[in-house]
Design a protein that fits this description.
This protein has 2 domains: 136 residues, Rossmann fold (3-Layer(aba) Sandwich); 125 residues, UDP-galactose 4-epimerase, domain 1, CATH 3.90.25.10. With 316 residues, it is α/β, with parallel strands linked by helices. Helix 1 links the parallel strand 1 and strand 2. A 7-stranded parallel beta sheet has the order 3-2-1-4-5-6-8, with helices on both faces. A two-stranded parallel sheet has the order 7-9.
């Protein structure tokens, strides 16, 4: 039996689906059963619980051989995932597979708080002596659906504080495929895998890809980091989350996301998803829908001003 923690997320849900398709018995730790109907329909056994509830973790681990661990970003991440590690140790689990952070961020003195917490959990797992596999993915392509698609579709603008840094973005489904391969094999104990897409590209190149996929103009504007942070705060994002994204953007600008790995092909036997295929698949999310030509024209004029303002800010 494999326990999937984080099964209602984009990675965990796909991991559960792939495992069931491969004939593996799967149990999912679920806080809200109403959000797990699809999992139950696939034949996944549901266990109600929470990373903050040690008793529920102990119960969910009963009869389990392997654990897949992923959770949402949280300032208590190391503490909450640590609860799962303790429960796994108590249940004599034979293998823990954890989705961690991008490699340059995972260290005790790393530049990003969430990366430092990932290191704490990795270190805790290693200390137990339980066989482990750590997956360290880079920037998720799916993040673009939340951060870029609304503005691209409405304004034809791709705005981000990434300069010209190349980033080997990866499809979350490829991360899940790697995880499923690792969970169903004994050949990956005590291994760490970087998981990336097939090539690194800049946001300017991304804008061109999105323009091709949507048959509309898409312009990249390199925004000053402080401006990007202020936009997030106006959207109501908590300070710690804004700080985390600012730290990660700084890391990417320094080239942390440029390295390309062969992990997806090596472990799954197929190439990873390209940004071109991802953009084509999700073109409707990035496409102008009911936005008047007047609004687009005004937006483009505004972009010119924004671009000049960004240039002035960087010059200062």
């Amino acid at each position: 039996m494999i326990l999937v923690i984080g099964a209602t997320g984009r990675i965990g849900g796909e991991v559960a689906r792939l495992l069931v398709s491969a004939g593996s018995p799967v149990r999912a730790l679920i806080r809200d059963r109403s959000k797990a109907t699809a999992l139950a329909d696939q034949g996944v056994e549901l266990a109600t619980g929470d990373l903050g509830d040690a008793a529920s973790l102990d119960q969910a681990m009963q009869g389990v051989d392997r654990v897949f661990l992923v959770s949402v970003q949280d300032l208590r991440q190391a503490e909450l995932q640590g609860n799962a590690v303790d429960a796994a140790l108590g249940a004599h689990i034979g293998h823990i597979v954890k989705v961690s952070g991008i490699a340059p961020s995972v260290s005790p003195g790393g530049p990003a708080e969430i990366g430092r917490q990932h290191w704490q959990t990795e270190h805790r797992i290693e200390a137990t002596g339980v066989p482990f596999t750590f997956l360290r993915p880079g920037f998720f392509m799916q993040n673009l659906l939340e951060t870029a698609a609304p503005m691209v579709s409405e304004l034809g603008l791709l705005a981000a504080p990434m300069d010209s840094a190349p980033i080997a973005m990866v499809d979350a489904r490829d991360i899940a495929a790697v995880a499923a391969a690792v969970l169903t094999s004994d050949s990956h104990y005590d291994r760490v895998y970087d998981v990336t897409g097939p090539r690194a590209f800049s946001y300017a190149e991304l804008a061109a890809v999105l323009a091709s996929a949507t048959a509309q103009r898409v312009r990249y504007v390199n925004t000053p980091p402080k401006l990007a942070a202020n936009v997030l705060r106006r959207q109501g994002k908590p300070d710690w989350y804004v700080e985390h994204l600012a730290e990660m953007a700084e890391l990417f600008r320094a080239g942390a996301g440029a390295t390309v790995s062969t992990t997806v092909r090596d472990l799954t036997g197929r190439p990873p998803q390209t940004i071109e295929s991802f953009a084509a698949e999700h073109a409707s999310s990035f496409t102008q829908d009911g936005v008047s030509r007047l609004v687009h024209t005004a937006a483009r004029l505004g972009l010119t001003v924004a671009g000049r303002a960004a240039s002035v800010s960087r010059a200062r």
